[in-house]
Amino acid sequence: MKKIYSILVVCLSIVSFSSMAQMSVGLGGGLLKSTEENAEGLFGGEVNFKYDVTDQIRAGVNLGFYQKTEELLGLKYGSSTAPISVLGEYSFLEGKFRPYLGLHLGAMRIGAKVGNSKTSETYFSLAPVVGADYQVTDNIGVNFNFKYGFAFYKNEILDEVENFSTTSPNIGVFYKF
Question: Can you give the pTM of this predicted structure?
Fold first, then answer.
């Protein structure tokens, strides 16, 4: 494992030095909410790493965590969602303002906790994204995006694949290097 990590660090270092201003790291916050009626939103955030394959196409990874915890009659309960995905994005313009469309593919881990009892499930997820980056300086920018996510699971009783959906508006900052 150490060797794989070392090789990955060396490769990323070589790529970053040979292709300046083509990578970025972002940090954002937002709200993740099920599209079911009367669903409550979970607050949280995401960290992402993006690589500019061309001037208009980006690829990367995204890690998120959203949660909500409450207490009723002295008993704590809550839920959490952790989306982990690879992403692809296409930017329409060049310059300081860059609107884009994208797609995130990955896993969505959903957990629940009541008192000391925990349970969680992991689902395949797909999330189309629409967003925009605004470059404030050469290295620092602001990102706004909206995701409509689908998580797929197999219903064992009906023996068929079903899905549920989420919406997620986010705002964040990024650093290009």
Answer: 0.81
